[in-house]
Amino acid sequence: MHFRKRLLASITLSLAFASALTCSTALAQKDWPTRSIQLEVPFAAGGPTDSIARLIAVPMGQYLGQTVVVENVPGAGGTIASTKVARAAPDGYTIYIHHIGMATASALYDKLSYDPLTSFEYIGQVADVPMVLMGRKDLPPNNFKELEAYIKANGAKVTMANAGPGAVSQLCGLLLQSRLGVKLTNIPYKGTGPALTDLLGGQVDLLCDQTTQIIPYIKDNRVKSYGTTTLKRLPAIPNVPTLSEQGLKGFEVKAWHGVYAPKGTPQAVLDKLNAALKFALNSPDVKKRLEDSSIDVVSMDKVTPKSLKTQLENEINAWGPIIRKANIPD
Which pLDDT belongs to residue 326? Predict the structure, then answer.
C-alpha cells in the first residue's frame, strides 16, 4: 500500500516537473530573443553575400528587438561556416546566410561533416545576384555569336578566369562550356577581385562575374559584355542581351541566397526569424540599396522555409552532374 502511494506520488511529481519544463520552454520561446543573434557569413567581408547580410541584419534586429551581429567565417568554399552552424546550439541565436554554394558542396567535396539538406532548418530565400559573361576589351569577338564561333575554333587556347573551385563564377563557366560542348583553359583565382583585375589588364580572355562589382566597368566599356545569365535583361544594363535570347535557351546562373538555422531550432523561433526576414526585405531602404546593385529581392512567396528547401533540392540536382563531369578541382 505504501509502495503504491510512493509510486503515485513519484508519477505525480514527474508529471508536474514535465509540465513545468514544458511551460518554461514555451515561455522562453515566447520571450525569445533575449540577447544578440549571430548571422554567420561563409565568406570574407566586402563580397556580395556579406553585403546582403549586413543590409538585412539591421532591420531584422529592429524587428526582433536585439542586435543581429554579422560574423565572417570564410574558407573551404563555405564549408567551414556550414559546419560551425550545423554544430551550433539550436536556440535561434546562430543563423546562417549562404548562396548557391550550399547546393554545390556535396558534389565538390567527398566528405562533409554536415548534410546540406538535413543539418539545417530553413528560414527563407533572400535575393538573387545575376551575372554577366565578359571578355577582355581587345578580345576579337564583338557579340555572343562571334564569341561562340571563336571559342569553338580555339578551344583550350581560350582562357576563362574564375574565383576558385565551387565559386559561382566557375559554375557559370562550367555551364557555358557544357552547353557549347567545349573545354576551355580554366584559371582559378582567390576571388573575383584579382580575376577581374587580370581581365581588365588583358591577362585572361573571359570571366563570368556577379553584377555587384562589374556594372561600372560594363558602362565604361572597359570590358566586352557578351550576355547576362538571366532570363530577362537587367534594368541597369538594358543594352546587354541575355545569353538565353542569343541561342543558349534557358541559360540561367544566379547567386541565390537563403537563410538557415541549426537543425532542431524550435518552430516558434523559426517563425519569428522568418517574420524578421520578411520585415527586412520589405524595407524600402533595403530594397533600394539591393536594386541599386542589380540584386533582385525575391518575392515574398519565396521568403518561406518550403521555397528555400525546394530551391536547394533543385539546385543540388541541377549542378551535381555538371560538377562531377567537370571533375572539380581541375
Answer: 76
- State the residue for C-alpha cell 564569341: 147
More confident residue, 16 or 187: 187
Q: Please check the confidence at residue 27 and state whether its pLDDT lies above 50.
A: no
Average pLDDT on 170-195 reads 90
Give the chain's mean pLDDT: 90
Closest among 147, 134, 131, 67 to 99, alpha carbons compared: 131
Predicted structure pTM score:
0.80
Average pLDDT of the segment spanning 36-61: 91
131-246: CATH homologous superfamily?
Periplasmic binding protein-like II (3.40.190.10)
Nearest to 69 by CA among 87, 80, 79, 57: 57
What are the beta bridge partners of residue 224? Answer: 135
Instruction: Give the DSSP letter of residue 230.
Output: S
Domain with CATH 3.40.190.10 in the chain: 131-246
pLDDT at 165: 73
Q: Is the pLDDT of residue 285 over 50?
A: yes
Sheet holding 120-129, edge to edge: 68-72, 37-41, 94-98, 255-262, 120-129, 296-297
The neighbour count for residue 176, using CB atoms within 10 Å, is 25
> Structurally, what CATH architecture does the domain formed by 34-128+256-326 represent?
3-Layer(aba) Sandwich (3.40)
C-beta separation of 40 from 50 below 8 A: no
Contact 111, 216 (CB under 8 A): no
Q: Give the sign of the dihedral formed by CA 144, CA 146, CA 149, CA 152.
A: negative
Q: How far is CA 289 from CA 49, 51, 74, 119, 222, in A?
A: 14, 10, 24, 32, 24
Instruction: Extract the runs of DSSP E, i.e. beta strands, from the chain.
Output: 37-41, 68-72, 94-98, 120-129, 131-136, 159-162, 185-188, 206-210, 223-228, 255-262, 296-297
Residues of the chain with CATH 3.40.190.150: 34-128+256-326
Confidence (pLDDT) at 232: 93
